[in-house]
Amino acid sequence: MKKTQAAPICEIDFYAESTIRKPVPVYHQMLDLGTVVWLERNDMHAICGHEALVSSLRNHQVFSSAKGVSVDDEINKVLIGSSLNSDPPQHDESRKTTGHVGFGAGVHACLGMNLARLEMISLLNSLADKCSLLKLPGR
Predict the structure, then answer these.
(1) Does 59 fall in a domain?
(2) How many CB atoms lie within 10 A of CB 69?
(3) Which of 18, 48, 81, 112 has its CA 20 to 30 A from that of 70?
(4) Could you list the residue range(s) of the whole structural domain that residue 74 is in?
(5) Is residue 138 part of a domain?
(6) According to the model, what pLDDT value does residue 39 have?
(7) Within a domain: 2
């Protein structure tokens, strides 16, 4: 049996306003501790550094996304089986498309497409109300 080493504990609050405002020094502090750290205040691991992150994400046996990639369990439950929350071979199958799909369809449908459409309709209606040169059908 292979002995695993515990990740170094990092006392940084990853979601603190100060971290969000100035993240670069925090990232360097995390990376100085190791390529994987335990964020005690946020109750989660963090992979530090581009190379370590890319290497982990490309190896589903090291970093499985099948049970979720979000820190929010409810979001993970909703996305199970999607291309985001799946490992090969299911991930590879769900990523196959034929040609351009725009907002997508089926498993590739954009979750925000209806909101995006509503926002565009609202924007165009607002512009039409303010601009006498712009005439929209039905207005």
Answers:
(1) yes
(2) 14
(3) 18
(4) 66-96
(5) no
(6) 94
(7) no
Instruction: Please tell me whether residues 73 and 120 are part of one structural domain.
Output: no
Segment of 7-11, 58-62, 69-73, 112-116 carrying the highest mean pLDDT? 7-11
Instruction: Quote the number of domains for the chain.
Output: 3
The tens digit of pLDDT for each residue in 84-101 reads 788 888 877 777 765 555
- Domain match, 76 and 121 both: no
3-state secondary structure 99-112: CCCCCCCHHHCCCC
Question: Nearest Cα to 46, choosing from 58, 29, 59?
Answer: 29
Residue 136 counted as domain residue: no
Q: What whole-number distance in Å separates Cα of residue 35 and Cα of residue 45?
A: 10
- In a shared domain, residues 32 and 57: yes
Report pLDDT for 105.
Answer: 65
- C-alpha triplet 67, 48, 64: angle, nearest 5°: 20
